[in-house]
Design brief:
Layout lengths: L2 H7 L9 E4 L5 E4 L11 E2 L6 E2 L4 E2 L6 H10 L3 E3 L8 H10 L7 E6 L4 H15 L4 E6 L10 H12 L3 E8 L3 H10 L5 E5 L5 H13 L3 E5 L14 H9 L1 H10 L7 E2 L6 H9 L7 H14 L20 H12 L4 H9 L3 H4 L19 H12 L1
Parallel strand pairs: 5-6, 6-7, 7-8, 8-9, 9-10, 10-11, 11-12
Antiparallel strand pairs: 1-2, 3-4
Helix pairs in contact: 1-10, 2-3, 3-4, 4-5, 6-7, 9-11, 12-13, 12-15
Length: 385
Amino acid sequence: MKSSRRNFLAAGIALPAVTTFANVSGTARMEPPAPAAGAMPLRKLGKTGLSVTPVAFGCMITSDASVIEKAADLGINYFDTARGYQSGNNERMVGAALKSKRKQLVISTKSHAGTKEAALADLDTSLKEIGTDYVDIWYLHAKTKAEQITDELMEAQRIAKQQGKIRFAGVSTHGGFDSVFPAAIGKKHFDVILTSYNFAIADQVEKHIAAAKAAGIGVVAMKVMAGGFRTNREGSPVREKLNREGAFLAALKWCLRSGSQVDTTIPSMTDMDQLDENLKAMTVPFSDADTSVLAAQLRGITPMYCRACGGCEGQCPKGLPVPELVRFAMYSDGYGQFALGRENFLALPQEVRAVRCSDCSECAVQCRNGVHVAARLTRAQELYA
């Protein structure tokens, strides 16, 4: 165990005491109140009444339950999972790790289903796997267009609220911000929006975050590391360079900096060292040195990182979903999660999976942000097809 991690975790950040409140079905639930002196800081999540730590826990790629348990012991009180993560196994692990503290915590999960019936079936499975009778936030997952936020999916959330199975309705988006945010805000249905947000895409999403906050909607930031890359394979020069320069801590500090309007963040954490580093982001202010580090990181990741601007939509004559394929390649090259990338790739239609970019003499897709599209799509096809 590294000395820095041991010393930091030994500091014993206090877990706040808990108080009760009533959920939508009238059943008593537990929520952390405002922190006592020296305790973990908390922020209000929109108008939900939930108080959450600025650094929460994105469980998507975590396979070590002890890291989740330690995070809860130290005071992190919001944990995010999804029905599809790790082929459904992630929810089970998260539930087992948090069982003893369930009523002190905020837990969210997600469904990618496209119909009311399928979504409600997903929710029932999620509750069973997590081992809880409710989740605090249930997201309609990965919407990129307004028309994907359908009346029947919102009806599924209303039914789930009435049944006491969820407390708050959410929607998540990896991109398509100009479409998804106005739709989500305008429907006056959602309590929380989970959105990609990091230093590389700030100019696309910050105005929408401000609009959501003005409407009283809670905002949770994901993809805060702009592509991961810290969990890349051991010995990778990219990983070693970014670790050495403190780019990952700087990226998280940027999301929490003064002036940021996000309520909380859900960075992935796979080991105790990452937990240690992410906790530091709540106590060490963002600096000019961090700005320089992130400028250098942006130059380095530009050929690989999709900023979800939507500029390439419809450009591929073979109909490839370019942003999605670039993201799937990132899951392996950035997060070190081959299985996650392959699972997403295999969920694409067969005619899309059959396309090979190497058959084209030149790529018709030109990324205005500098992503090497042909190389990234070919990489995804080589990895997963």
